[in-house]
């Protein structure tokens, strides 16, 4: 067990990073399932910087943040962590995880990702360091098949656990594939639907209301 200096068992810190452009149910429901499965009651939502050339022209970082804030006010599981947006430039996950590690001592860190992100893990900046800093809890993704490239297959062989209790026993180093709802939703497709004026029930209602109020993603403004 991972314990404090006083000998108490430490609950892992859950973190879920993303561009959240916009935050949708494909982000929130699978992580809700995974958190329940592994016994976490709080997860930090960590919106990341998007380089200016990639940002959605009609949506600012402040508006992405506002949508995540609305979710955190409504969903008891989630709490906002705006540290990456408070910095001037994009930060790599490995740097942010190093920062958490410095703050949290040997408390287990659980970083939630979707299956597509696991498949691309070997393209992340300093990807070999990620599992020295945290555990990865992977959510299924409806539009993504579980076939892995050789680097990721090897990593899975070396680090996979099938027992969620192990995540509480050490600070980092494990990959757990959670049994989550499969939702084939992506922000990119959602933005397309919104721009075409199609109805969508794939967004939390508070986020849809915000998008409609401010006329984001090509939706006609109600302002
Ligand atoms: P884009 O369409 O721009 O790729 P996205 O919807 O994939 O956006 P991000 O905010 O970039 O969303 O993703 C943040 C995290 O959420 C990533 O780890 C990603 O794998 C995960 N994720 C996104 N959509 C889903 C989904 N439908 N099911 C499970 N995980 C998801």
Automatic annotation (TrEMBL):
Gene Ontology terms, MF aspect: ATP binding; nicotinate-nucleotide adenylyltransferase activity
UniProt GO BP: NAD+ biosynthetic process
Catalyzed reactions: nicotinate beta-D-ribonucleotide + ATP + H(+) = deamido-NAD(+) + diphosphate
UniProt xrefs under Pfam families: CTP_transf_like
Top EC category: transferase
Annotated pathway: Cofactor biosynthesis; NAD(+) biosynthesis; deamido-NAD(+) from nicotinate D-ribonucleotide: step 1/1
Entry-linked InterPro entries: Cyt_trans-like (IPR004821), NadD/NMNAT (IPR005248), Rossmann-like_a/b/a_fold (IPR014729)
UniProt keyword annotations, A-Z: ATP-binding, NAD, Nucleotide-binding, Nucleotidyltransferase, Pyridine nucleotide biosynthesis, Transferase
Domain of life, source organism: Bacteria
UniProt domain Cytidyltransferase-like: residue ranges: 15-191
The enzyme's E.C. designation: 2.7.7.18
Record HAMAP family: NaMN_adenylyltr (MF_00244)
Function: Catalyzes the reversible adenylation of nicotinate mononucleotide (NaMN) to nicotinic acid adenine dinucleotide (NaAD).
Name of the protein described by the UniProt record: Probable nicotinate-nucleotide adenylyltransferase
Organism annotation: Bowmanella dokdonensis
């Amino acid at each position: 067990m991972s314990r404090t200096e006083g000998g108490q068992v430490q609950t892992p810190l859950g973190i879920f990073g993303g561009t959240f452009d916009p935050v949708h149910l494909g982000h929130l429901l699978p992580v809700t399932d995974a958190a329940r499965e592994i016994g976490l009651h709080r997860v930090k939502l960590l919106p990341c910087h998007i380089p200016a050339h990639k940002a959605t022209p009609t949506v600012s970082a402040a508006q992405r943040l506002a949508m995540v804030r609305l979710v955190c006010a409504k969903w008891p599981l989630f709490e906002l962590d705006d540290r990456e947006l408070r910095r001037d430039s994009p930060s790599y996950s490995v740097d942010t995880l190093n920062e958490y590690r410095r703050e949290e001592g040997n408390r287990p860190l659980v970083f939630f990702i979707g299956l597509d992100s696991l498949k691309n893990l070997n393209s992340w900046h300093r990807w070999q360091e990620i599992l020295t800093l945290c555990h990865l809890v992977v959510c299924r993704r409806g539009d993504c098949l579980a076939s892995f490239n050789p680097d990721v297959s090897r990593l899975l062989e070396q680090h996979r656990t099938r027992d969620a209790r192990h995540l509480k026993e050490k600070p980092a180093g494990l990959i757990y594939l959670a049994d989550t709802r499969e939702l084939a939703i992506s922000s990119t497709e959602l933005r397309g639907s919104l721009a075409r004026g199609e109805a969508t029930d794939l967004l939390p209602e508070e986020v849809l209301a915000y998008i409609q109020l401010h006329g984001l993603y090509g939706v006609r403004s109600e302002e």
